[in-house]
Amino acid sequence: MNATKSRSLIRSLAAASTSSVAALTVYDSSGKGTHNYPTNVPTTAISGPLSFGGLSVMRGVTTCCEAPQKSPMETTGRPSWLRRTLASLRLSSLPIPRLIVPGDPAFVMDPRLLQKRQDDEIQMQELVRTAIASREHRKNPKALQELNDKCLELAYGEGVTMKIRQDFIHRHGCTGWTDDVLDAIIELGKDRGVVEIGAGNGQWARAIMDRSTSTIHNNSNNNDTRRKKKFDLVLAFDDRSELPLDQQVFNKKTQIHRDYFYDKVKKCDANFSNTLRHWECRGRVLLLVYPPPGDMAINAVEQYVSAAPINDTVIYVGEGRGGANANEALFDQLESGDWILMRVMKVKSFGSKGYEQLYILKRRNPQS
Question: Would you say which domain of life the source belongs to (predicted)?
């Protein structure tokens, strides 16, 4: 019983009741600069622990200085086996940006977390099986509520109620953002735009657009009368096969729709080929937020890459290998030696049992 089935079970129970480039110098613990990389990551000093797919590793202080612009091919090398091993043991850190290779800690989820999730799902199955056999929940609303609460706790963590879960989904969808995350997406897309595939009800697209509008207003210069060409920062698409919230129920007349949904989400074909090859989408950053298990994510990445050589940047928001999102094929593609990990950021996961993060990924050789 995977995470998707667990969430479906809970729903059933509820129903019953590129920009200027600088060089990023990564320092080791001795204070010596060890790597210089060009990056479009915001040039601010960062320090402290960084979590990669459930493994917390320490990252050295990073700072930026001016340097000649070079291509990622020229500057980003493969970390040694020893460095990758030490990083996986939390005894060292790997530089970012870096070339992603098989077994990269960024996509490794702690086996203990995966085992605990599997055990919780088995326990949830047993609880439901027992309840169905006894038929007690059909006669006793209190028993049904206790079963529902226990399943929610197993799926999302202690203290989660159905109302808390529903409120989160209304506002964010399956996973949430932070202001820093929105700012990073806006910075990447400000000159080229973003195309979101699998946008669902459009909460992320709406949040990005609202944040962008607010930022432009707050940073506007009254003395600057130049007019820039307007374009939609985010183009959002979904095939509407797995919408988190039914649009017939949460239609445009509802307050939830008006407050959180994005009206410009367009219907696309199931394999996204026609959508991503359209001229409006070429050159944009591809955004994938909490893709479902299966081929959807890898299909979107492959169609995006093949659509145009300038399609070179992917933002993936989800769990690592073996987690609740995508499949092995996506991570095999990202670890093929053709992708560079530019940044990893925390997102606002729901409850205490979600381990998704935001990954900014750039193709090593976009012309290939």
Answer: Eukaryota
Paired with 77 in beta bridges are none
Both tokens of residue 12? 């059933």
pLDDT in tens, 127-143: 989 888 887 777 788 88
Domains contained in the chain, CATH given: 3-17+112-171 (no CATH), 22-99 (no CATH), 174-219+230-363 (3.40.50.150)
The string of pLDDT tens digits covering residues 317-362 is 999 999 999 999 999 999 999 999 999 999 999 999 999 999 999 9
Instruction: Of 23, 31, 21, 5, give the one whose Cα is nearest residue 120.
Output: 5
CA 129 – CA 132 distance, rounded (Å): 5
Q: Give 107: exposed, middle or buried? Use CB within 10 Å, 0-12, 13-18, 19+.
A: buried
Amino acid letter, 302? E
Model pTM score: 0.76
